[in-house]
Amino acid sequence: MVRRLVLVLGDQLSHGLSALNAANKSSDLVVMAEVMEEGTYVPHHPKKIALILSAMRHFAEELRAAGWQVAYTRLDDREATGSIVGELMRRAEAHGTSDVIATQPGEWRLIAALDAAPLRVTQLPDDRFVCSLDAFNAWAEGRKELRLEYFYREMRRRTGFLMEGARPAGGKWNYDHDNRKPARADLLRASPMRFVPDSITAEVLDLVEARFAGHFGRLRPFWFAVRADEARRAFDHFATHLLPGFGDFQDAMVAGDHFVHHSVMSMYLNIGLLDPLDICARVVAEWQAGRVPINAAEGYVRQVIGWREYVRGIYFREGPDYVRRNALGHRRALPAMFWGGDTRMNCVAQAVEQTQQEAYAHHIQRLMVTGNFALLAGVDPAQVHDWYLAVYADAVEWVEAPNVIGMSQFADGGIIASKPYVSSGNYIAKMSDYCAACAYSVKARTGRDACPFNLLYWDFLIRHRDRFGRNPRMGPVYRTWDRMDEGHCATVLRDAARVLETLDAGGVV
User: Fold this and answer.
1) Cα(115)–Cα(258) distance, rounded to whole angstroms?
2) Domain end: 105, 124, 143, which one?
3) Cβ(370)–Cβ(338) under 8 Å?
4) Which run of H or E residues covers position 468?
5) Is residue 410 domain-resident?
6) In a domain, 350, yes or no
7) What tens digit of pLDDT does each residue of 410-449 get?
8) 120 plus 146 within the same structural domain
């Protein structure tokens, strides 16, 4: 007899999951299901789908080895219903129970689906995070601005990471000023650890190749970790070989180098193969041993216990409508170049080609190349959100949506960012080697050869002057514009209009 069903989703592959902790091995049945709906509600990158399906199959084997009863549905099973709720109902009918234990999903879409299911579903808090949602809301209550820096300090105090009593190690909370160095191509630089697919993964790859052939992205070669022990080995490799330079070069972009000093651990964290406290403890230990400078250790810890926890709190605090907010009223369609269409902009081409190949781009490529262009061009933020959710292996909605809707597109009106993250081509030229091989000139301010970032930057600021003109952080920029020659300003806006007209006509920019 099965007393209850225990739902485990594809991004909940942790043995300490709250739903598993609340269940009984002898009387409850774990339900795991590969369903078409989850692979197609946005056209997920084939590598992302393969990562999750293979990791699910390996995790199901681990659960069985630990004594759990597991009912597992494969994507190509004849009885498969195609949805999470459909699979729960099928298993409930087969085993004569209506009771389900679940850990709360990381998307409002799935939370609503479980709430509406004709079953008795108990959704438990996901406690695999440093800060519970209740604790985040208590921190946020009554604050006029929910800024990361203040939340991050609370997380440092709570965990004790990089603390010397009540003071931050080294005397500063944040070493970001030291983390903006450009990098050069280096054939001797280590790369993320790569894994050879085992028989389970090989079977998944064939399935994904057959079922999702039309999705954007290259499935092979596939080298991701799919088990927790592999993910831990990958992190050990990063901590030993790449973490020392992570701080200095975390914002750098190098043509042909897809990872520079980044760990590429977010996808493993976000599906449950790694624990955030464990990896932060390792980073701190590397600093304490003198093998890693403090700017690298602090920069990494801030991303994990600061930013990651903060955006989760924002996502759930703001509610289901957050992903469709559009404070700036942007309506332009996402350009074809985001899906691999032709472009003369080398930086965008590099970021998109890398995304297509790896299902990965680091935070500056996402924020200051593709995100910056979409914001300057006035692209509909819902389309931008759907794109990021689809193409990146680490994109679970609770973490992806605030990064895009809030940080990247300013579509939430300033909940996350105090000003929009926009720049001319100068920032990209400073932090990358992309501009040297570009068809456009990053130094040209007007004309058909001028970098589109240079033109659209000013066009964006003038379009939204009523909103941003009084922003104290943007006042100097507007004063610079006001000092420019009127004829030059008119030429800039005319040339920007030409770029936008080309986009609207489906032309190549």
Assistant:
1) 41
2) 124
3) yes
4) helix 465-468
5) yes
6) yes
7) 999 999 999 999 999 999 999 999 999 999 999 999 999 9
8) no
What's the alpha-carbon Rg for the chain, to the nearest Å? 24
Which residues, in sequence order, are bridge partners of residue 102? Answer: 7, 123
Q: Determine what percent of the chain falls in helix, strand and coil, rounding each to the nearest 5.
A: 55, 5, 40
CATH of the domain at 362: 1.10.579.10
Please determine, for residue 236, whether its predicted confidence score (pLDDT) is greater than 90.
yes
Enter the tokens of residue 228: 């927790």
Cα distances from 56 to residues 13, 33, 42, 60, 271, in angstroms, run 7, 9, 20, 6, 9
Q: In this structure, are 305 and 165 located in the same domain?
A: yes
Write out the two tokens for 335. Answer: 């350009």
Give the phi and the psi of residue 253 in degrees, each rounded to 5: -130, 130
∠ CA(322), CA(328), CA(329), 5° rounding?
A: 90
Domain limits for position 310 = 133-192+242-317
User: No. of H helices and E strands in the chain?
Assistant: 24, 7
CA distance 122 to 98: 11
**What would the two tokens of residue 54 be?**
């293979």
Round to whole Å and give the CA distance between 1 and 470: 67
| pLDDT tens, position by position, 36-74 | 999 999 999 999 999 999 999 999 999 999 999 999 999
Strand 163-164 with 167-168, pairing: antiparallel
pLDDT band at 262 (very low <50, low <70, confident <90, very high): very high
For the chain, what is the largest distance between any 2 Cα atoms, rounded to a whole number of angstroms? Answer: 81
> Which segments of 169-275 does DSSP mark as H helices, in order?
199-211, 228-241, 243-249, 266-271
Cα separation, 456 vs 236, in Å, equals 42
Q: Output the six-digit token pair for 406.
A: 């809030």
Q: Is 208 inside any structural domain?
A: no
Interatomic CA distance for residues 345 and 373, integer angstroms: 10
344-to-54, 352, 434, 450, 505 alpha-carbon distances in Å: 37, 13, 12, 11, 16
Judge whether 228 lies within some domain. no
Does one domain contain both 282 and 341?
no
Q: Tens digits of per-residue pLDDT, 298-318?
A: 999 999 999 999 999 999 999
Secondary structure (H, E, C), 54-89: HHHHHHHHHHHHCCCEEEEECCCCCCCCCCHHHHHH
CB of 458 within 8 A of CB of 425? no
